Amino acid sequence: MSRRDLRADLAICNATVPGPWSRTCNDFIVDAHGEMICEILADETVDTFIAESRTGWPHAIERALAAEAEVDRLSGNLRATFDALVGLLTLIPEKLEPEEQAIIDRIRADIYKEATAGDQTE
Question: What is the average per-residue pLDDT within 65-78?
Fold first, then answer.
């Protein structure tokens, strides 16, 4: 499954009538000033979703974008730390055991796979 463009989704949310929105007893969705956004022709769960999504989706998207940025930052830190530690291992005069080298190779594959996988799904 391809990733959604969260910035485009957020732009769609922010381009509409400002929130918060709410449901009236007459089955209308109204903005913060009481101006009608739309009439609801479905059940209460649909109008609740529409009203709550006006402020909920932008908030969720902003949190997802912040979380992705934090993952990217932490992944970069992890890769840099790993590379520094592997560099320090070259200073040890003894050769690594095959099991130790296998651990290093597995970790390298894991942390660098994440970097390339993220680039391919954007």
Answer: 95
User: Rounded mean pLDDT of the chain?
Assistant: 87
Q: Is the pLDDT of residue 117 over 70?
A: no
> Which pTM value belongs to this model?
0.71
Residue 121 has a pLDDT of: 45
The C-alpha angle 89, 82, 77, rounded to 5 degrees, equals 150
Decide: 115 and 75 in contact? Cβ < 8 Å. yes
Q: Give yes or no for a contact between 61 and 6, defined as CB atoms under 8 angstroms apart.
A: yes
> Which structural domain, as residue segments, surrounds residue 29?
6-120
Buried b / exposed e along 85-113 (16+ C-beta atoms within 10 A): eeeeeeeeeeeeeeeeeeeeeeeeeebee
Q: Quick check: is 28 in a domain? A: yes
Residue 1 placed within a domain: no
Instruction: From residue 111, give the alpha-carbon distance in Å to each of 19, 40, 76.
Output: 41, 48, 9
Specify the pLDDT at position 6.
95
Total number of domains in the chain: 1
Q: Is 113 part of a structural domain of the chain?
A: yes
